[in-house]
Design a protein that fits this description.
heterodimer; A: mainly alpha; 19 helices; 0% strand; B: mainly alpha
Chain lengths: 480, 214
């Protein structure tokens, strides 16, 4: 079952490369997306599945894997339908590389979710970088090539630092006289004997390396460029899927530190990164003239919220795990809707895009509702998760953190709000009504469904989802 | 410590190549030097762990990729875009060389203070690894051409590789292969992007890549 989850998108990617027709190739996306989602449900239902016989203990599904697989698969499945509509609109550009890379990207994210070996996790995360770089370059202009180059260099160097961190962790085992292995269960078992200085050095490098990929401030500089220049569907997958996978790698790092009895130091580092990310996002969101870059800073903000939730622990960890899901789905709504508005106006500057609600009513409403959801307004699901994190902060007695958290969230709400409102309302500029994009069910259906899901999750959290999130949170709370 | 000697010779060569890379403006020579450096590094597992199956395959794979395939991709990339020299680095060659010297000296002093296990004490692996990491970083920061930035990334990876030599038993062969494959594909994609940069901007200087800012 797990093998199928990894092989299906990989083979799909190879097959997409061989299909000659630009018109029919995109149809492979929803086929693979749906099949992947079905397989994911089986894996989640299956509970503790046996590890792959051939791969030893390198590929195992635990509670984190289930949560991340669900997020990635759900988001990808939605995006795959949207991509069919999008690629039909861009038919003259061809899509061989685009479709292949999307599917390989899905395979790499799935592999990262189930990897039980730090080396394998690294390989998978680096593969996501390589597979997503051509996606960012799809628009083929000067700006997108600049964004692609920055993304490629920054993330590759960041990931190289993470590799150094992994080697330091292995050296910590060597120096501590423990068994030298990067298999995750071996690490958790032996971590108590690891040499502390090397382990801490390793943690710092892992935090910086995977933190670059997740986009914590001040390592986030690739994010606004890449999200701004990539097509909306790629932005959705980066902001919802890739960052979740990178955050998973950070959660694994935290697990190791907890097992080594050094969790307090790790949590402090997470808290600091989280607050800095919130602060950066608050500064750059204000008067942001480009609504796709605005979403990138919102992504930085939510990575910060996740890090703070995990750092505080207790009920906030539950909130953070739930927020991982909510953030990914809401980012899907926002990026897909923003992509539609961008195409209709052929611009993403605030001055040139106004009155979207008259030209693309569905996308503009979705964009507005998505903004309300992501900033934590009830009744959407991010409200529940952000409120849970906040409750955890205050019951834990971290009043300063709580105060800063609320302050930054308020600033971001106002900053995002002014940009979003001026995009959605007002009168559309005359000459901008002339692109050939019109809303169809293919490009509005997916964000609508995603918005419905977060609305439902906000009103009523079904038992299976609740236990999935609770089990993931329990992994971090178990003290060795 | 006797069996370390050939490995130490190779590591000293790696440091010399680091200095050459920091001081040279000829891209062709730089790429070839990185190739030789990678080739030399790929021999290290043989000296360190003997001629076992694992180290033979690792050495062979690393040699093929670091010594041949990746340099070939980069050489092809600069042939396509007709450039030979790094014209204006952000920081001159002499200052970068000085910084490189300082970093190398610092690496040696610093690694004396690290809590290493007994058999690694006094070995050249850690200081040379650190110095190579620093060289890669310097190249990444001070150079403007996309290709020299890619070279900086490769040198950085070489530094990580040197450090990884000490821990070969932690890295199973499959994972090592995956790491090398990722590196190859990353350089392949970088090569394509370089080509596109050159086509769009008719230069490969990354300082042209500066329209995206706040």
């Amino acid at each position: 079952m797990i093998a199928a989850i990894l092989l299906l998108p990989f083979c799909g990617g190879l097959a997409a490369f061989c299909i000659p027709s630009d018109r029919f190739r995109p149809l492979l996306l929803p086929v693979c997306g749906l099949a992947h989602l079905v397989l994911t449900f089986f894996v989640i239902q299956g509970g503790q599945t046996a590890p792959l016989p051939m791969a030893g203990n390198w590929i195992v599904v635990d509670s984190f894997s289930r949560l991340i697989l669900l997020i990635v698969s759900l988001l990808f499945c939605g995006c795959s339908f949207y991509a069919v509509g999008y690629l039909r609109y861009r038919i003259v550009w061809g899509n061989r590389i685009f479709v292949s890379c999307l599917l390989i990207f899905l395979a790499a994210m799935s592999l990262a979710a189930v990897a039980r070996h730090l080396g394998l996790l690294w390989v998978a995360v680096e593969a996501t970088t390589v597979a997503s770089a051509p996606l960012i370059y799809y628009n083929r202009n000067r700006l997108s090539i600049e964004a692609t180059w920055k993304y490629l260099i920054l993330c590759s160097v960041g990931i190289a630092l993470a590799m150094l961190g992994i080697l330091f962790v292995a050296y910590a085992a060597l120096a501590g006289g423990a068994q030298v292995s990067l298999q995750f269960d071996d690490i958790l078992r032996g971590a108590a004997n690891y040499s502390t200085p090397w382990l801490r050095a390793g943690f710092v490098f892992l935090l910086v390396g995977f933190g670059t990929k997740a986009g914590f401030a001040p390592l986030h500089t690739w994010k606004p460029d890449a999200y701004g220049e990539a097509p909306g569907v790629v932005g959705a997958l980066l902001a919802g899927g890739l960052t979740s996978v990178a955050f998973l790698a950070l959660l694994r790092t935290l697990q190791i530190m907890e097992a080594a009895g050094d969790g307090a130091m790790a949590r402090e580092a997470f808290l600091a990164m989280g607050l800095v990310s919130l602060g950066f996002a608050a500064v750059f969101v204000i008067r942001q003239p480009d609504f796709k870059r605005l979403l990138a800073y919102s992504s930085v903000e939510h990575m910060g919220i996740l890090a703070i939730g995990v750092a505080i622990g207790g009920v906030a960890t539950f909130g953070a795990m739930l927020h991982l899901l909510n953030n990914a789905l809401t980012k899907g709504v926002l990026f897909l809707a923003a992509g539609n508005i961008h195409r209709r106006f052929a611009s993403k500057r605030v001055g040139e895009v106004q009155g979207a609600i008259t030209l693309v009513p569905v996308s503009a409403s979705l964009f507005l509702l998505g903004f309300l959801a992501i900033t934590g307004s009830p009744p959407f699901a991010p409200f529940i998760s952000e409120f849970t994190i906040l409750r955890g902060i205050f019951t834990g007695g971290h009043y300063l953190t709580g105060g800063l958290f609320l302050f930054f969230l308020a600033v971001i709400f106002i900053g995002m709000g002014s940009t979003v409102l001026s995009v959605v309302f007002g009168t559309p500029p005359e000459r901008k009504g002339d692109t050939n994009y019109r809303e169809t069910i293919m490009t509005t259906g997916t964000p609508l469904v995603l918005l419905l899901i977060i609305l439902i999750l906000g009103i009523y959290l079904p038992e299976p989802v609740w236990s999935l999130v609770a089990e993931a949170a329990a992994l971090l709370e178990v003290k060795p | 410590m006797d069996n370390y000697n050939p490995a130490n010779m190779l590591l000293l060569l790696v440091i010399l190549f680091n200095f050459f890379l920091l001081g040279s403006s000829r891209l062709n020579a730089c790429i070839r030097t990185v190739a030789i450096q990678g080739g030399i590094l790929s021999l290290l597992p043989l000296f360190l762990h003997g001629f076992s199956g694992h180290s033979l395959i690792l050495a062979g794979g690393a040699f093929l990729l670091k010594g041949i395939a990746i340099p070939f991709l980069l050489l092809r990339a600069i042939r396509q875009v007709h450039i030979r020299r790094e014209m204006e680095p952000l920081l001159g060659y002499v200052p970068t060389l000085l910084l490189g010297t300082l970093a190398t000296a610092g690496a040696f002093i610093f690694s004396d203070r690290l809590p290493l296990i007994e058999i690694h004490r006094g070995s050249l692996f850690i200081p040379v690894g650190l110095a190579t990491l620093a060289t890669g970083f310097l190249m990444l920061i001070t150079r403007r051409k996309a290709i020299t930035q890619a070279l900086g990334y490769l040198i950085f990876e070489n530094g990580v590789f040197i450090f990884g030599m000490l821990l070969a038993e932690a890295m199973p062969l499959m994972v090592e292969a995956g790491v090398l494959l990722d590196l190859l594909v990353a350089v392949f994609v970088m090569g394509i992007v370089m080509h596109q940069i050159n086509r769009e901007f008719s230069t490969m200087n990354t300082d042209q890549l500066s329209s995206l800012r706040e």
